């Protein structure tokens, strides 16, 4: 068996086309969807991420506002900026690039964001709505994974799914989304006992460790015909790679996502979708 590729390029292009159409319809009704980005400090990776998100937005017709702040920016100053953006009717989505500097309390900033403009889906309110099965603005990576599975008509109902990640960004929200689709979900992490046994019994494996020295998923760790969603990114042998030993895993799995070209592109596409959703919500509330 050689696994079929779950192609993030194809699916993200499909999402972007839908978003571009929705942006056009909103513009016709007098609304210009707008995404405000906030970056504190000069971390090269974060700057690259923000730049790519702004480029994506421009591609589909979403306006952007770029706020680049010094690494010394204070907690109260950031709260004040967020509150100003919350009140700005021309801004529909707010993205505060994570991680934040040590002097800033991330939870407090997330709590200060308007849930209606929280395009990362990380505010306490949106996290609670997701847990209740009523989420509108959902975390981008988990919702991107669900979009991939849906596009390729991979039905996860009754599957045993193992997620190797317990973060608020990926593992926890993805578990909730998979449960909504009737999968049976196990979340694993660095303290999990018998990890390899759990992986070998899984129909669906989602790995998001991002450190090949600590964890590498290979063919011996999965069962024949399983589905592998690789979220991890790190440098391996001088190249960008995921958690999975791709050449090994693809000989045993039925479906697999590549890195690059898989989940990462979907994360960016779902941010655009969330921005348009936020603009549509604002339109309805203004009636």
Terminal CA distance: 55 Å
Question: What's the CATH architecture name of the largest domain?
Answer: 3-Layer(aba) Sandwich
User: What's the SSE pattern?
Assistant: EHEHEHEHHHEHEHEEEEHEH
CATH topology of the largest domain: Rossmann fold
Kindly state the percentage of residues in helix: 40-55%
Number of helices: 10
Output the keywords.
2 domains; 10 helices; globular; 287 residues; 6-stranded parallel beta sheet; 42% helix; Rossmann fold
Give a structural overview.
The protein has 287 residues and is α/β, with parallel strands linked by helices. The chain folds into 2 domains: 30-114, Rossmann fold; 140-264, 3-Layer(aba) Sandwich (Rossmann fold), CATH 3.40.50.720. 42% of the residues lie in helices and 16% in strands. The chain has 10 helices and 11 strands. The strands form 3 sheets. The chain has a 6-stranded parallel β-sheet with strand order 1-11-8-7-5-6. It has a 3-stranded parallel β-sheet with strand order 3-2-4, with helices on both faces. The protein is globular, with a radius of gyration of 19 Å. The mean pLDDT is 96.
Q: What does this entry show, briefly?
A:
This protein has 287 residues and is α/β, with parallel strands linked by helices. The protein is built from ten helices and eleven strands.
């Amino acid at each position: 068996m050689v696994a079929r590729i779950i192609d993030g390029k194809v699916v993200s292009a499909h999402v972007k086309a839908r978003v571009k159409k929705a942006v056009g319809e909103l513009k016709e009704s007098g609304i210009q969807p707008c995404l405000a980005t906030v970056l504190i400090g000069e971390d090269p990776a974060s700057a690259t991420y923000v730049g790519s998100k702004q480029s994506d937005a421009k591609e589909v017709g979403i306006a952007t506002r770029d706020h680049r702040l010094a690494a010394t920016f204070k907690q109260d100053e950031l709260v004040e900026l967020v509150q100003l953006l919350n009140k700005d009717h021309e801004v529909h989505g707010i993205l505060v690039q994570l991680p934040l500097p040590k002097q800033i309390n991330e939870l407090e900033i997330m709590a200060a964001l308007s849930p209606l403009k929280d395009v990362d889906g990380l505010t306490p309110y949106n996290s609670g709505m997701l847990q209740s099965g009523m989420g509108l603005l959902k975390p981008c990576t988990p919702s991107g994974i669900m979009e991939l599975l849906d596009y390729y008509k991979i039905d996860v109902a009754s599957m045993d799914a193992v997620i190797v990640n317990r973060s608020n960004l990926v593992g926890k929200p993805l578990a909730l989304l998979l449960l909504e689709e009737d999968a049976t979900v196990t979340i694993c992490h660095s303290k999990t006992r018998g990890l390899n046994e759990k992986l070998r019994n899984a129909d669906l494996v989602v790995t998001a460790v991002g450190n090949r020295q600590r964890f590498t998923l290979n063919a011996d760790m999965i069962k024949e015909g399983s589905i592998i969603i690789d979220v991890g990114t790190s440098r391996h042998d001088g190249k960008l790679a995921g958690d999975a030993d791709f050449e090994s895993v693809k000989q045993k799995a039925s479906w697999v996502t590549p890195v690059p070209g898989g989940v990462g592109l979907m994360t960016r596409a779902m941010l655009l979708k969330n921005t348009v959703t936020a603009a549509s919500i604002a339109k309805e509330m203004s009636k």
